[in-house]
Amino acid sequence: MKLRPSWQQNEFSWRNVLWIGAVHLLAIAGAVPFFSWQGVAAFVVFYYVTGMLGITFCFHRLLTHHGYTVPRWIENFTALCGTLACQGGPINWVATHRIHHAYSDTPRDPHDINRGFWYSHAGWLVNLRCDLANFEEYKHYAPDLIKRPFLIFLENNMIFVQVLLGVSLFVLGGTVFGDAALPFDFFMATSMIVYGIFLRLVAVYHVTWFVNSASHTWGGTPNKSGDHSRNNWWVALLAFGEGWHNNHHAHARYARHGWHWWQFDQTWLLIRTLEMFGLIKDVVRPNIAAVREESESMGGATAKS
What SS3 class is residue 74? Predict the structure, then answer.
C-alpha cells in the first residue's frame, strides 16, 4: 500500500480532543446521579451492538479484511452499528486499519507502539496524521468502499445518526421504561442517555484502543508476524475476540481470531451462527496445520499463548 505524501504531516485535532473529553466528562459526571438498571441494560445492549456487530464484525473482519461475504442489507445494518461507535465513519476506520496492517509497528503505522503505550492507545487521535484527517486523502486507502452510497452517507453523518439514537433512547426512557405514574420520566430518560450513549461510548473507545496498545505490549507471540502484536486474553474477553491479535496479524484475512478452543472469540461464534443460517458465505478459516508448519519453518514460536 502506497501512502499519501501527507502521511508525514500531523495536525493537533481540537475536534477529537473536545469530543473525546466531553464524552468522558459527561459519562463520569452522570454515572452515579443517573444510575438505573434500565440504563445498565441499554449500556450492555449497545456495547455489543456497536462494539461487536459494528466494529469487530463489520468494520474489521468484513470491510477491512474481507474475511467473509454477507448480503448487502447485513453489511449496511452492521456498518450503521459501527458508525454509532463514533470512531469515525466506515471508510476512515477501514483506511486507518489497513495502513496499520501494511506498516505495523513502524513509523508509518498511525498508532505505532514504539512511540509509547499511551500514544498507541489514544495519543495518535490528538496528533492526527493529515492523510487520515481529510476524506479526499484517506479515501485512497479504501477505494472499494467509496463506491457504496450508504457507506458514504454514514461517513458524512456519524454525529447525526448518534443524535437520532440519543433522541430515541431519551424518548423510550421517559415513556416506555420510565415511571408509569409520570407523564414523562426525565430521570429515566437521562439515565438512558448517560448509560446508552456516553458510558457506552467511553467503554467501546477504550476496549478498541486496547487492541492497538495492550495487544501490542503484553501477551504471547506464538506466530511470527514481523511486529509486536500479542495474544492478550483479557483484551480478547473485552473486545469480542480481537485480543488474539498475534494470530490476527499472522494471517489477517482469517475470520476466526481465536484459533484454539481455549481462545474465546465471541465474534467467531456470531459468524458461525450466521453461517449456519445461510447469511454468511466464503468464510476464510484458519488452517492450523499450515500455520504450525509455517511457524516451525520460521524458527518456531517465541512464547506460548
Answer: helix
Taking residue 228's Cβ as centre, other Cβ atoms within 10 Å add up to 19
Placement of cell 466494529 in the chain:
55
pLDDT tens, position by position, 79-105 = 999 999 999 999 999 999 999 999 999
268 Cβ contact partners less than 8 Å away, ≥ 6 residues apart:
241, 255, 256, 257, 258
Please indicate, yes or no, whether the overall pTM of this predicted structure exceeds 0.85: yes
- How far does the chain reach from its first CA to its final CA, in angstroms? 30
Domain ranges of the chain: 5-212, 222-305
Give dist(CA 32, CA 156) in Å, integer. 34
User: Rounded to whole angstroms, how far apart are CA atoms 175 and 183?
Assistant: 8
Q: Kindly report the number of other CB atoms within 10 A of residue 176's CB atom.
A: 12
Share of the chain above pLDDT 70, in %: 95
Which class for 10: exposed (0-12), middle (13-18), buried (19 or more C-beta within 10 A)? middle
Helix residue ranges, H only, the chain: 14-31, 37-48, 72-83, 90-102, 117-118, 124-126, 135-138, 149-156, 158-174, 186-193, 200-212, 233-238, 245-250, 266-276, 288-297
SS (H, E, C) 255-284: CCCCCCCCCCCHHHHHHHHHHHCCCCECCC
Distance CA 42, CA 267 (A): 20
Radius of gyration of the chain measured on its C-alpha atoms: 20
* Burial state string for 239-268 with b = 16 or more CB within 10 A and e = fewer than 16: bbbbbbbbbbbbbbebbbbbbeeebbbbbb
